[in-house]
Amino acid sequence: RGFTPQLSVLAAIATCFVASFFKKETRFTGRKLITALKEGSLTVLNVAAICASAGIIVGTVSLTGLGLKLSTIIISYAGGNLIVTAVFAAVILWIIGLAVPITATYIISAVIVAPALTKLGVPEYAAHMFIFYYALLSEVSPPTALSPFAAAALIGGDPYKTTIMAWKYAITAFLLPFIFTVLPAGRALLLHWEGIGVFAGIWTIVSGFIGIGMLASGCSGWLLKRLGWLGRALMIIGALCFVYPSRLGDAAGFVCLVVVILVQKMNREERAENPHPSI
């Protein structure tokens, strides 16, 4: 409503300061206030350095027109297909995220990747949420996943095994940005219902959650019981079908899910500890 980001931050700080006096344990008085100011200043220095470095790159890309050229190249290689363009965008974000932190990844990608998505009709808010989402996921993406490496250092675990496990559990999150980017009705997930029918929005949300659940099942290897390689493949393929913007894709996804469930139910007489799953 016309408020600047700076004013929003100032209002948030003032609100937190006033709210801290509601409880004795959280009051910002004396030494606690000085400590908070000190730690806040040190944190801002790190973020400012990252933003300044990213700003140089963004300025260079913007002034030379390289951002628009790169977006045009991405679209041309994708043949103007939105799904393929989104896949290319995700790969670019992953590559950028290997070298720089989340904030810098978003700032740089907003100049390079966002125009490619918006040129194909994706609203700006959805394109930037796509970028922000994958910038966050770069923290758990191998081979240079910073968060799992830090967690492994804290618990004394193997950093590479920790990274693979973190990526395995987070892989379902990689599907969600495609739902609100590729599917127009999927923008209901971002609470934008303009031009979206109620049924279409609800159906997209439900089918999206089913697809995410299928992807989680396929990656973990478990549904009603253990899944074999064929069952896991069907679950993953079915999950990807739910992202395809058509009723045919949804139907194919449901067929994969029903087939796996029926086969597992027909073999329910097998003991749960059977080391050789049927599908």
Write the layout of secondary structure elements.
Layout: H1 5-19, H2 31-64, H3 66-77, H4 82-99, H5 102-112, H6 114-119, H7 124-137, H8 146-155, H9 159-170, H10 176-182, H11 198-220, H12 229-241, H13 247-266
What does this structure look like?
The chain has helices at 5-19, 31-64, 66-77, 82-99, 102-112, 114-119, 124-137, 146-155, 159-170, 176-182, 198-220, 229-241, 247-266. It is globular. It has two domains: 61-178, no CATH class; 183-279. Helices cover 70% and strands 0% of the residues. With 279 residues, it is mostly helical. Helix 4 crosses helix 7 and helix 12 packs antiparallel against helix 13. It is built from 13 helices and no strands.
Structure classification: mainly alpha
Rg, Å, rounded: 23 Å
What is the number of E strands?
A: 0
Secondary-structure element order, as H and E? HHHHHHHHHHHHH
Q: Can you summarize the main beta sheet?
A: none
How would you concisely characterize the structure shown here?
The chain is mostly helical. It has helices spanning 5-19, 31-64, 66-77, 82-99, 102-112, 114-119, 124-137, 146-155, 159-170, 176-182, 198-220, 229-241, 247-266.
